[in-house]
Every structure is written in C-alpha cells, then in structure tokens.
Write a structure and sequence with these properties.
Blueprint lengths: L2 E6 L6 E7 L6 H7 L10 E2 L7 H4 L3 E2 L12 H25 L2 H4 L9 H21 L1
Length: about 140
C-alpha cells in the first residue's frame, strides 16, 4: 500500500513537503513523526483525525474534536469543528488537485522505485499551476 503525506502552506496553498511511504500500512501520525522535516515550533499544524496524539509531537497543532463513544459533541465543540473545517478546506482543495492525476488515485502499475519521483513531479506541477493562478 502506497501512502503519501503532504505538508501544505495554508497561506499560499503550495505544497511545501511530500513524503511517500511504501512500507505497508502506517498511521498518519507515525509518518509525521518519522518525517525528517523540522517544523518550527511557532507554526500551527492542522490535521484530521488521523493525527490523534500530534500534540505530543508538535505543541502548536490542532485536530478536530472527536465524538466520544456513546455520546455527542457539545454545541461549542461543533462550532469549533465547523470553524476548523472552514480553514482546512483550502488544504483539501490542494489534495483534490493531486487526485486529478490518475496515478495518485488509482492502482499504481509502474515500478515502485519511481513512485516518489512521480509524486514530486505532481507536486511541482500543482505548485506551478497555483502560482499562475495567484499571479493573474
């Protein structure tokens, strides 16, 4: 199973870092912990529920509230999740741009040692396209 992790700047929607994992199943948080990229402690990191426990790794990180077992979220937590989603939607749009490339969303049928290079090419093309849109 091939898994990729993108670090995207929310400010200008560019892909800052791409990591491709080929070693079977790995959780999102474990891939984040093993990333050689050092993220400055003042930078806010926003992830989805796959990153439960990220606060132990990076102090200024946020994830949405998780619904408790056999319970409901409070109205305040629901409002906070909605605000969180409205900020994170920009990142999801960049993820969608990646999926426009068939290699990313379908079964990869090429050599595994090429997959990281192809991901970097896809990220570069997306960044190039975003810069063109920003300049116009």
């Amino acid at each position: 199973m091939i898994k990729s992790q993108l670090i995207i700047s929310q400010k200008d929607k560019t892909i800052e870092h791409c990591r491709v994992e080929l070693e079977g199943r790995k959780s999102d948080i474990r891939i984040f912990q093993e990333t050689p990229l050092e993220i400055h402690r003042k930078i806010k990191v926003k992830g989805d529920l796959g990153y439960v426990g990220i606060q132990k790794v990076h102090a200024r990180s946020q994830i949405p509230h998780k619904k408790p077992k056999n319970g409901e979220l409070t109205i305040k937590q629901k409002r906070q999740n909605k605000a969180f989603r409205s900020k994170r939607v920009k990142i999801e749009h960049v993820n969608r741009l990646c999926k426009c490339f068939r290699m990313v969303k379908e079964t990869y049928r090429n050599r595994l040692n090429h997959v990281a290079q192809i991901w970097l090419i896809v990220c570069g093309l997306i960044n190039l396209n975003i810069e063109k849109v920003i300049r116009i």
